[in-house]
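Pilot study result, target chain (256 residues):
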Amino acid sequence: MGKVRILILGGTTEARALAAALARRVDLDVVLSLAGRTADPAPQPVPTRSGGFGGAEGLARYLRDEAVDLVVDATHPFAARISANAARAAGECDVPAFALRRPAWAPVEGDDWLSVHSVSQAVTALGNAPLRVFLATGRQEAHQANAAPHHHYWVRSVDPVEPPLTAPHVDYIHGRGPFRLEDELDLLKRHAIDVVVAKNSGGDATYAKIEAARRLGIRIIMVERAETAGLPVVETVEAALGQIDHFVSSRMKRGV
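Predicted structure:
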């Protein structure tokens, strides 16, 4: 029996941790696929491919051409399009697939959250009075802030925002998580931030800004996730490893 070929759709901390856990296994042939949106991605523990597949059809073609046995969708919780494409392509090719999706954050005592369903809704919810806004939604949707140019924005992203925003009062902060609580407290205090706009990404790497806002009594406009459909979901790397072990063992029993 040949090696089990696994495609991990990645770009998250969990995808890298899963790949690292699988890297030394001689019974697996693992490829980690990255969207290619980050100019200088972190080193990865297994072979990688970069860039899109060309929709569900392109991904299905890749699964067939590479004889992929199992797909793990470990993309960002807000990468709805690739997740939908993964479900569709895996279904078309009759390739087993599941999603590794970290749990969403939930408000705790002391949090002041306003939940919205998109970055554009978040910008509208800022209101008419000028505010000092920490926009921590990533660069791809930062341009939504152009619709409310009367606020002063501090925009944090891994890579530069291109093109820059047209709003007149914008400062750019480049950084890659994980972020420390002390640094987030300093950032919010130093710039006298009135409100934080964030996506409910879950996980530990970027949670410090949520805790910092709580400690300082700063409101958060939280962009909640859309419901993901199409694939069974596990929430931890350990659970994903269990799913993979189950798949490999059942395949061995079948003698495939």
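One observation from the pilot: Residues 237-254 form the longest helix (18 residues). A full batch analysis is planned for the follow-on phase.
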